[in-house]
Amino acid sequence: MIDILQTRVIPVLLLLEKGLVKTVQFSNPTYIGDPINAVHIFNDKEVDELIFLDITPVKRLKNPAVDQTYHTPLDLVRRISEECSMPLAFGGGIRSVEDVRNILATGVEKVVLNTAAINDPDLIHTASDTFGSQSVVVSMDVKRWNAHQFEVYSHGGSKPTGIDPMHHARAVALMGAGEIMVNAIDRDGTMNGYDLELISRIASAVKIPIIACGGAGTLRHLSDAVSAGAPAVAAGSMFMFHGRRRAVLISYPDRSDLDNIFSISDPTNDTR
Fold it and tell me: 186 an active-site residue?
């Protein structure tokens, strides 16, 4: 049973060429602003945790005219880490234990593995053994094909793998992942709610914590994901945009509002 007092609400921030962006269904990145400024705002709002994902490598793959040589901007990651007053996770372009070591050396608490967890599953095991499972988050980008069929995609949601997400979740848990972030490609940026069936099925498949991501737009959506089995909920657009015109306004719910909505989702809470 999930302890609602330990539920984490996590903004997910996307980096593209060192700028902050937001996507819809992994496409059409919209510029949001400076990542350091966003960190300062989230510091003031005392968020639970931050996840930064660098999507520059996968976006460059789609543009052959751009130099494909890319290295994680460790100087920027270090600045973000130094300014960040809450736990920080970083992912994007990580391919080796040396990459993991370099990122953790900047002060980041966790690395997020996605495509590397598919192409080189041993990296999960090696990183977990070397730095501790609490330092390794495996992110999976999942597309729904029909009422009950899902598939894991790699390379920023651009390449189908033929892998069933429940099988993938069990495999990475056995390899030593400390957490699994489940990102529904079809829901990304829509603010129409999480894919609750996907969350529930993966939560039932593994014993390690999962982070629900993709589709949050209201506090109720966060509550629904917790009820579906996610002890942590992540969102991007919900914390970046305001109103029907999606004006950029970085925000985060008040702690009292979060406590109230999660208490509603708690099956042990008797309101009679």
Answer: no
* Number of residues that this document lists for the chain: 272
Collect all residues with Cβ–Cβ distance below 8 Å to 184 and sequence separation of at least 6: 142, 143, 144, 194, 195, 198, 213, 214, 215
Q: Give 89's strand partners.
A: 51, 110
> Which pTM does this prediction carry?
0.92
Helices (H) and strands (E) in the chain, counts: 11, 14
HSE at residue 255, side-chain half, CA atoms within 13 A, is 7
Dihedral class, residue 176 (left if φ above 0, else alpha if ψ from -120 to 50, else beta): left
Nearest CA among 120, 158, 122, 152 for reference residue 139: 152
Q: What does the block give as tokens for 57?
A: 């490598």
Residue 123, CA atoms < 13 Å, CB-side half-sphere? 22
Tell me the fold of 7-265.
TIM Barrel (3.20.20)
Q: Hey, what amino acid is at 81?
A: S
Catalytic residue of the set 48, 141, 186, 188: 141
Q: Among all chains, which residue has been given the structure tokens 């736990």?
A: 87
What span, in angstroms and rounded, lies between the C-alpha atoms of 40 and 35? 9
- 155-182: string of b/e by CB count within 10 Å (b at 16+)? bbbbeebebbbbebbbbbbebbbbbbbb
Domain edges within the chain? 7-265
The pLDDT tens digits for 138-192 are 999 999 998 889 999 999 999 999 999 999 999 999 999 999 999 999 999 999 9
- pLDDT tens for 233-268 read 999 999 998 877 788 899 999 989 998 898 865 555
